[in-house]
């Protein structure tokens, strides 16, 4: 990848190989992700995405590779997220989403990468969330959800990305939440729940996104909750909990939403 930056097929296949090698969440998988990061994977992937913005194949595989190398919730995983952001990952993923709105697999992988890069609650993670919002991530995620309502993985990853970017209780976090609502985030989260009632991971992500976008105690937050109820959120959450009685994550997130709406 470093030797042939302008050859799109090399970059696409290199990113594909990186995504496959760095798949997995067990100890060995996490070790491979770290080894890839240490070898310069983030910088190579970002360079590929920057060099071939119009090539959907490069964008698809590059976003998938970023998401896979970034995944991980331990300290090393969060450090990889920051390294990806430092390499410019947030901006290239937003660009991929914006340039290829009708390519479902780009939207799926781009939202997945954004969700991973923006994971976390420490100061560095909050800065990544804000950087994503400033780059246009919130609007791009909503567009992805609107464009591919029947693609379950787009809905899952899009809702997860919106939930991660829009988490935060400080003034900047609440502003991100309101920005998501203004972009149509409430409606697309409800639509995701309604369109995929039997897909547990969509129900989990949709409920989490809805909770984050409706969170708060001021008048604006109350207005967001009323808007959610008006477009069918209460019924959608009840349907999620009824459809997945044995799924602890659906039940927990659904109950949190019910309590919030109450």
Automatic annotation (TrEMBL):
Name of the featured protein: Uncharacterized protein
Residues passing through the membrane, by range: none
Keyword ATP-binding: no
PANTHER family found in the cross-reference section: ARMADILLO REPEAT-CONTAINING PROTEIN 6
Record's keyword annotation contains Repeat: yes
Annotated organism of origin: Emiliania huxleyi (strain CCMP1516)
Annotated InterPro entries: ARM-like, ARM-type_fold, Armadillo
Keywords recorded for this protein, A-Z: Repeat
Family annotation (SUPFAM superfamilies): ARM repeat
Database matches in SMART domains: ARM
């Amino acid at each position: 990848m470093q030797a042939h930056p302008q050859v799109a097929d090399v970059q696409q296949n290199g990113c594909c190989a990186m995504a496959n090698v760095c798949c997995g969440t067990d100890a060995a998988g996490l070790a491979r992700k770290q080894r890839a990061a240490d070898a310069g994977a983030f910088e190579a992937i970002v360079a590929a995405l920057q060099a071939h913005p119009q090539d959907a194949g490069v964008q698809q595989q590059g976003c998938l590779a970023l998401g896979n190398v970034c995944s991980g919730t331990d300290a090393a995983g969060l450090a990889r997220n920051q390294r990806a952001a430092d390499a410019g990952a947030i901006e290239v993923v937003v660009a991929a989403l914006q340039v290829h709105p009708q390519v479902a697999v780009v939207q799926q992988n781009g939202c997945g990468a954004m969700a991973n890069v923006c994971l976390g609650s420490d100061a560095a993670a909050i800065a990544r969330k804000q950087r994503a919002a400033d780059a246009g991530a919130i609007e791009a995620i909503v567009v992805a959800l609107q464009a591919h309502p029947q693609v379950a993985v787009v809905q899952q990853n899009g809702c997860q990305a919106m939930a991660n970017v829009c988490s935060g209780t400080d003034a900047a976090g609440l502003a991100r939440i309101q920005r998501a609502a203004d972009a149509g985030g409430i409606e697309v989260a409800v639509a995701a729940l309604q369109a995929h009632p039997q897909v547990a991971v969509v129900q989990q992500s949709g409920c989490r996104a809805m909770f984050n976008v409706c969170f708060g105690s001021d008048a604006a937050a109350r207005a967001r909750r009323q808007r959610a109820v008006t477009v069918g959120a209460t019924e959608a959450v009840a349907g999620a909990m009824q459809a997945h009685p044995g799924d602890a994550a659906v039940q927990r997130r659904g109950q949190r939403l019910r309590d919030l709406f109450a």
